[in-house]
Design brief:
181 residues, 10 helices, mainly alpha, disordered C terminus, single chain, 0% strand
């Protein structure tokens, strides 16, 4: 299909679209957790593939893998440009069933402080910690998802946790032991 698309064959693009549009959308939606954002990414990726279908190299992997990498990269770029999307996603994940009112207020304050602390981290550290603790990805999965070397991901997590510990004064009042956790 890509070869036919290179030649300007609209039917080939229609077939490509039918085969991959839901796949692209699923990847984008998993990364962004936003239907409108995922729809935008899906459209952008499909347009880019149509315009630059000659970039595909069979020697480097399957078309499906190429599409997945393009989609993940585009979605992660969107997250980087819109840090509030990450904060909204964190808020959604952190929020749980409604507890008693006083417990809700305390939990809400803890979440706000944690979000503030996370936002103080460099993006790569914040992203790695988010993927590991909130999405429960392994370090290897994070490396694949973010297209970064495994050692860099491990370092980002280690340094991110160290930086959070340095922010103890922010987090001190949360834990009963005075922030020693």
């Amino acid at each position: 299909m890509l070869e036919q698309m290179r030649l300007g064959n609209q039917e080939a693009f229609d077939q490509f679209y039918q085969r991959y549009h839901s796949y692209i959308f699923q990847i984008a939606h998993k990364v962004l957790a936003s239907r409108p954002e995922a729809e935008d990414i899906t459209q952008e990726v499909l347009i880019e593939i149509y315009q630059k279908c000659d970039q595909y190299q069979a020697s480097r992997g399957s078309v499906k893998a190429w599409v997945a990498v393009k989609t993940k990269s585009r979605a992660i770029d969107r997250l980087r440009k819109k840090p509030e999307v990450l904060v909204d996603k964190l808020e959604h994940i952190i929020t749980n069933a409604s507890p008693a009112a006083d417990q809700f207020v305390i939990e809400r304050m803890e979440k706000d402080i944690l979000q503030t602390a996370l936002l103080q981290l460099p993006f790569s550290q914040r992203q790695a910690i988010y993927h590991m603790y909130y999405e429960q990805f392994s370090q290897k999965e994070i490396a694949l998802r973010t297209n970064r070397p495994l050692g860099s991901v491990k370092s980002s997590i280690r340094y991110g946790l160290q930086n959070l510990k340095k922010q103890k004064s922010l987090l001190r009042w949360i834990s009963p032991g005075g922030g020693d956790k």
